[in-house]
Specification:
By secondary structure, the protein is mainly beta. Helices cover 6% and strands 46% of the residues.
Length: 287
């Protein structure tokens, strides 16, 4: 390596006391500037620097973390209709009212009214509110109908009631529809002092439709199979206690499996329409 130097000669004029300018001897100031040359490296001797790449496990870990974030981030409910037991006995109603509370993925309060619509038939109205976990309050309304298909007799012990319905639920920015069709099957066992107990099962298939659901606010639908397993304890001709559990197979309705307790009342004037029709001659409800 060589050092480069530079020199500069500066002449300074000094005025005399008489105002005359006389040249002074030249004073040479030699400034030596040290310049550090940039080292030159032969291309043949240059050592290539390794390119840093992330470790494979780091890339896999980032992908796994992203997947977990997607799975664990709360998503909007795919459907907002609530699911609750039908509390439907295997016989047609004359007129009765039921107030019930259901628990599962939240709390549901609902009211049912069933009215005779002809021989062995009735229609019904359901209305209620549901407070599901992590969701806003839902309001729902439904209509239903029932037709006796078979009555218990000395030849066979079962009562069968065909059912059909239409329900709508509104809340949390979406609307849900359910169209169930099923059959309620059970048998009434008479007890002492005019009491009785009726265990029943109510399987039903339904078309479940949800509007403005999912991430894209699109409409979704599916066909589900649900069933109730319940019992009616008839205290007297007017009052009864109903309990039931619903097992839901729907992907579009919130609420999942649920359990309900209801208090049923039949007006005094209509309680006389409950004839004695069991094989043993004990009284039973035509409801």
């Amino acid at each position: 390596m060589q050092r480069e130097s530079s020199s500069q000669t500066i002449s300074v004029a000094v005025p005399s006391r008489a105002g005359l300018v006389r040249p002074e001897p030249e004073v040479s100031l030699i400034a030596i500037v040290m310049i550090k040359p940039r080292p030159t490296v032969s291309p043949s001797l240059a050592v290539p620097q390794p390119r840093r790449t992330p470790a494979p496990w780091l890339h896999s870990g980032a992908m796994l973390l992203g997947a977990l974030i997607v799975l664990l981030t709360p998503q909007r409910a795919q459907a907002q209709a609530t699911n609750y037991p039908s509390l439907q006995l295997p016989t047609a109603s004359v007129r009765d009212y039921t107030a019930a509370i259901a628990g599962g993925e939240g709390t549901t309060l609902f009211f049912q009214w069933r009215e005779r619509a002809g021989e062995g038939m009735h229609f019904g109205l359901d209305a209620g509110l549901s407070d599901q976990r992590s969701r806003n309050l839902l309001a729902f309304l439904g209509v239903s109908g029932g037709k006796e298909l078979l009555r218990a007799s000395s030849e066979q012990p079962l009562d069968l009631l065909g059912t059909v319905g239409l329900g709508v639920a509104i809340g949390d920015g979406s609307t849900s529809l359910r169209l169930p069709v099923g059959v309620s099957v059970g048998h009434t066992f008479p007890l002492d002092q005019g009491m009785s107990i009726t265990p029943y099962v109510h399987p039903r298939m339904s078309l479940d439709v949800c509007g403005s659901c999912g991430r894209a606010d699109d409409s979704r639908s599916d066909v589900s199979l649900n069933f109730d397993l319940g019992a009616n304890f008839q205290v007297n001709r007017q009052f009864a206690l109903r309990v039931a559990a619903v097992f839901s197979g729907s992907d579009q309705l919130s609420g999942g499996d649920a359990f309900a307790v209801g208090f049923n009342w039949t007006p005094t004037a209509l309680s006389r329409f409950r004839p004695a029709s069991t094989r043993s001659g004990a009284s039973r409800s035509v409801r």
